[in-house]
Amino acid sequence: MKKKRILAWICILFLVGMYVTDFVLALIGSDLARNMLMASCICTILIPIVLYGVVTAFGGRGRGPEIPDDDKDEDSTKS
Fold it and tell me: What predicted TM-score, i.e. pTM, was given to this entire model?
């Protein structure tokens, strides 16, 4: 769960950084502002989709479900 939060925060910071850059470029009147705005719009859609795919694909590669040890349960009930 912690990895998902870290990836989500990285995604959020990247997108916010792109929008701040767009805003600054628009204020200074750069010709690059329009292209950066288009890139930001595309990344706003693509980055969450890619992030979801990565989390879905590699999310199940952690530890497997823990199987309770029956021997320990029997010993504790006998005491």
Answer: 0.60
